[in-house]
Structures are given as structure tokens and as C-alpha cells.
Specification:
Chains A, B, C, D: This is TetR/AcrR family transcriptional regulator. Chains A, B, C, D: It holds the Pfam family TetR_C_24. Chains A, B, C, D: Keywords: DNA-binding. Chains A, B, C, D: It comes from Paenibacillus dokdonensis. 4 copies of one chain form a homotetramer. Chain A is mainly alpha-helical. In chain A, 79% of the residues lie in helices and 0% in strands. Chain A has 9 helices and no strands. In chain A, helix 1 packs across helix 4, helix 5 runs antiparallel to helix 7 and helix 8 runs antiparallel to helix 9. At the C-D interface, helix 1, helix 6, helix 7, helix 8 and helix 9 of C face helix 1, helix 6, helix 7, helix 8 and helix 9 of D. Chain B binds a DNA duplex through helix 2 and helix 3.
DNA sequence: CATGAATGAGAGTTCATTCAT
DNA sequence: CATGAATGAACTCTCATTCAT
């Protein structure tokens, strides 16, 4: 089906070039459809972009949620959150960069607003997991859950970035462990 | 002098619109110089952008360095690092976003390479401060200093972002304290 | 039947948007048929347009003719011509604008030629009524009947236009009377 | 100068093709400038069109006004109005068609509104000449001056149209005389 | 030093038309 | 009879860059 081919191609092209340098011509070429077919299936470039980002957010939230269904200690929950996000970040580096960072300027105002909303929802999704854990287990430091969630995302994004430009510095497992340590040792209550 | 006027205007325009939506016309207009003057002073758009990002990095590194000249405990050093970065992030939100995030795709390859190098240098600058502290004071957890630095930057960037879209949630001082807690409680050794 | 639905929808859309801005998509949407159905029933956009214009001309000529079947004094005949044209012009303003004015440029050459022919026929139809009256009653000034007919159409078109953009200036009846006066006092012989 | 070349070319192209079929490429080609030069000098297609129509209206109003400076009997004034409009209509047939008819649909709403305003001003200009004459000389029939002006324009437009498609029917002088008769015998008071 | 008119490659988008079903 | 997904040529418009002055 054309729609799927287009989305697959668009992910590629947006990932490789960023929103602005990605051209509809290139996407059509990559999807092996005519340019008009893009506009038959999507209202325009920004809407196509939105669709993709939306799917990305939903994808990672679903994957995370599915894995947290069973009752798990918060430590394990955070580990899994980190693992899923690392999967996304490392498997499709540019795509995740788009999802988490390219939402700043230079996109049509209305679509931008929707995308920011999506990002907020993702953050609240993580925050709610933390909040639940904080209440139930009393293991988390008394920090605003939203800020904590923001910190997790920022740390993941930034460390992955570093990891990817230093491919031989440590293994994927090391990275996971390091990040877990950095995050949790600040989130778990410790005797000072 | 024209060069200064151009740089000031360019910071504004790049900040407000991102790299691609910023136009040389707009920059010339804001700088109150003719379009040709831009090309008299800078080889092109990407070079102008590079100049600005470079100045941004140098600025924050200088400000931080200057404040760390006196011998200070690591806790105080980190607090000051956070404070300077919050200053930069909150005072010129979009500019810092450019500096820390817009360096991904869609910029001319050669300039992009230089910018990534700058970002690496900034990260290493922070990492070296941490490294020194780790050796001298043995207060820091045994985590790769570069990853720790990346985590700090990511956390700052991400939490500021949240803070700015929820202006009334907490005060600037609260934010500073929260971020400090999140970062340090993971970086300082604690008895588990 | 699809054909009728299409024609009704097409009249609406052409009227509201003019030939070029009217899109086949919009017509199909309004007619509640699939786009392909348009091309099943009509060879293309210009032919569909031609069909509509043709029906418009035939409609007004029939209405006028029907009303002039009984032998009437020329004064009454002209009044009825005016009345029928005002009906058409005022009831479906844009449609009549299309019929009388949009036949100039920018339509496929072959269809355009046919449409101009239709306009000529309409003009000759009016002219023949005037000509008959001139011979039989000797009440009309010695002016070329075709020019006189052209003048009537031009006056109707132009005054309706004015009337429609000044809705409260005079009543429909006033307009009819004024136009009648303007036209006839130039067409009837008067002692100078 | 580029601006002049563009306007000259645009008049040609708009006249030959109507607003929608006229392409900016064609105008640039005809003007022997690059496409970008069009947009350097005019904000867009509709604005370019507006400029041209505006100049057309101003041109004919100026020419007419200049010729009516000396105090003339109304009969002579109307003759001159007719003459100037015939000049415009016959010399640049398509241009005048644009000016007087292509202002209906399918042009950007804001520009369309301005153009309609121009047409209204032109009509009021003619109406004011008639009004003055009516008051001063008491020679004009008691018909609303605006409708009378509309009638003149409509008659001129429509008869010229006919004249141009029947080039050999009568001479330009005949046309002028006929039109003058048609118009004035309805405007001058006559004993019925 | 500085200008700004001019450029042209390339972008996003529209839409009449086709054709396999 | 009717459909609607797919097409691709043509369109308007943007903008970094150049160069004669």
C-alpha cells in the first residue's frame, strides 16, 4: 500500500536530513511513488511529519507500557524504561532525535503545537510511572515527578548521543548500566 | 561596526526561527545593513551560523571557568556549573537550543563537523572539571566523566525546556535546587 | 442519475469559483459521486463547463421565447426580455457572469470557440426580436440590431453588477424600471 | 529597468491568457528576466495583477479627466468619454477585458476586494461627470447617475466585444456614432 | 567597505486525468 | 455504470548567493 511505503520512506528521509532538508521529491523517490501520491495520502509535508512523530511516541509508549504490566519493583521499572528508550535511540538514532529535539522552531505553528503536546504526553506518561512508584514504594526522592522524567529523557538523549559518536568507548550493556546508575542514584533515597 | 550588528541580529533570528527558517534577508533587515554586507563579512549562511555557535560555547565556557578559578569544593563547582548553564538556557532559550540541539542534520557537512567538534570540546571541558574533582576529592561515583557530563547537559536542557513551558510551576531557585539534587545525588557517593 | 447530480454540482462550483478555481474534486464532492464518475459522464472539465453554459443560454432563450409567443407590442417585449435577464442575473449571479463574461481567455481553444458561438447565437436571438419589431412597428431607432442587442446585454450585466453590490440602493422593481428607461429611451424614436 | 519590463510583459501575458492561465514563468520569459526578479519586484502574482489593473484604471481616468478640463457641453463630454473608452477597449482589447471583467472570482480575496474598489471608483468617476452635467444643464434624464454610468460601461464593453468579432461590419467611426446614439438618446430628455 | 538589484535552482503544492477493478 | 487510488506536469513562491557599482 502506498501509505505505508510513504511513511517508511519519510522516516528514512526525515531521519537522514532533518525536517527542512528532507524534500517531498526525495520521499516520493524513496517510496517509489509519484509526488502526487504523497499529497493524495497526506495533506502536506508538516502533516506527514506529524504522523511519523506521533507513531514514534505511541510506539515507545506502548512498548514501555506493555513491559510494565506485571507488578515490578520500581528499580526494575526504571531499568526497563531506560532499556526501551535506548532501543529506540540506538536503533533509529536520527528518528529519535527528530522525535525528541526537532520539535523546536521552523515547523508550521499548528503542527508544532500538536507535536509539543505529544512530547508533553510522553513526559507525563513517564512521570506517572514515577509518581505511582513514589507513592507505593516510598523509594523515590521527593523531587517533582515531571522534572525527574525530563531529566531521564534528557540524560538518555544526551548520553546516547555521546555513545554514538564514540562507538568503541563502551558496550551497549555498559551504557545501560552507567545510565541506570546516574539516574537512579539520584532518584532513590540514600542515607547522606 | 557592521560585523557586530550582523552577529547580534543573526543570534536573534536564528534563535527565533531555527537554522533553516532563518533567512539572510531577515538578518540583514534586523542588522540594518544591506544583504550584500552579510556576504562581505561572512562567506555564507552556514559560516555565520558557525561563528555564532562558537561564540556561544566560548562564552559559557569562559563564564564557567572564570567562576571556578578559586579552589572550591566539587559540590560548589557543580552548583556553579548548573547556575551558569541555567543562566544561558533561561536567558536565551532558543539560542541555547540551537547550540545544543540544532547541530544534528541539515547543515552543510563541513560546518556541521566543526560544530560537533565544538560540542565535544564543551563536553570535555565539563568532564575535565568532574575528572579533576573525582581524583582530588574522591567524592564522585565511579562513572565515566564524559557520560556524567553528557547527563548534566541533557538534564539541564530537558528540565529547562519543561520549566519554560510551565512557567508558574516553580521558581527559578526551586528549579536550580531540584536539578542540583537530581544530578548530585547520583554523582556523589552515597551509602546504599 | 449521476449526470444530473454532476451538472447541478458543477453549476454551483463554477459559479462560486469561476472556471479555473473550480476543481473537479470539489464538483465530485458536491455531487456525491466519485471523481471517476465525472470522467465517465463527461470527457473532461472544459466539456462539462461547455454543457453547463449551453444549458444556461438555452434556458434563458427558451424562457424568453415562451413569453413572447403571443403577439405583443415591442415595448412589452423589451420589458419581458429585461425581466427574464434580470431574473437570470439576479437569481444566479455568478452563473450568469460565467455565461456572459468568463468566455474570454484561458479555456481550451476548441471549447472556447463553441462557447463564443453560443454567445453569438444568443445575441442574434435578441437582435432578431428587435429586428422584427423594427420592421413591423417602426418604433425602433435606426441602429444596427446586433449592436442594440449587445448594448442591452451589456447594460443588464453592468447594472446588475452595480445593483448587487449596493443591495439597499433601490428595489428590484426600481432597477427594472430604470434599466428599461435607459434602454428604451435610446431605442425608441423620439422627437428631438 | 526590470520593473517596467515585467509590467509590460505581464500586461501581454495576462491579456492573452487571462489571470489564471498566465504563468509567472511565461511573464519572466517574456520580460527577459529571471523568475526571481518577478518576486524581487512584486510580492506575488496577484499583486502584480493588481498593479496592472490599477494602472489601467488610472490611465483611462486621467486621459478622460484631462480632456474634460475645459468647460464643454455634456453632449461633447459624453462623446469624449466614449471615445477614450473605445480607444482603451479597441487598442488593448484583452487588457480592458481584464480590467472590466476578470475581476469576478478566482483571484485572491484581498486583492479582489481592492480591484472591485477600483472598479467602483471608476464608475463613480463617470457618475460624477454625469451628475455635474445633470445639475448644471438639466439635459439628462432623471436616472440614477451610477446606474447610468454602469450602463455606459456595459454598453461600451459589450458593443466593442461584438465589433471586434465582426471586424468588417462597420468602421470605428460608425461604431462610435452608434454607441453615442444608443447611450445619449436614453440619457437626454426627449419629448415622448 | 558596503550596496541591492538580479539570479536560478529547488521547494511545496495543486489538480485534470487515467485505469485497474 | 461507477469507483478512487495513483499520477506527473505545471504551478507559485523562497532564498542563499553573486556582482557591478
Amino acid at each position: 500500500m502506498s501509505k505505508d511505503k510513504i511513511i517508511r520512506a519519510a522516516i528514512e528521509v526525515f531521519s537522514e536530513n532533518g525536517y527542512h532538508r528532507a524534500s517531498m521529491d526525495e520521499i516520493a523517490l524513496r517510496a517509489q511513488v509519484a509526488k502526487g501520491t504523497l499529497y493524495y495520502n497526506f495533506p502536506g509535508k508538516s502533516q506527514l511529519f506529524k504522523t511519523i512523530v506521533k507513531e514514534g511516541f505511541e510506539n515507545i509508549m506502548q512498548r514501555t507500557q506493555a513491559d510494565l504490566n506485571a507488578p515490578l519493583p520500581i528499580k526494575e521499572q526504571i531499568l526497563r524504561i531506560i532499556r526501551h528508550h535506548l532501543d529506540l535511540f540506538l536503533e533509529s538514532r536520527h528518528f529519535s532525535h527528530i522525535v525528541f529535539n526537532e520539535l523546536s522552531n521552523g515547523i508550521e505553528q499548528d503542527v508544532l503545537e500538536e507535536l509539543k503536546q505529544l512530547r508533553r504526553e510522553h513526559l507525563h506518561f513517564l512521570a506517572s510511572i514515577l509518581e505511582t512508584a513514589k507513592c507505593e514504594e516510598n523509594l523515590l526522592r521527593d523531587v517533582d515527578a515531571n522534572l525527574a522524567a525530563a531529566s531521564i529523557i534528557g540524560t538518555l538523549e544526551s548520553t546516547c548521543n555521546y555513545y554514538l559518536s564514540h562507538p568503541n568507548a563502551y558496550s551497549r550493556d555498559d551504557l545501560e548500566r552507567y545510565v541506570f546508575t546516574i539516574i537512579t542514584q539520584g532518584l532513590f533515597i540514600s542515607i547522606d
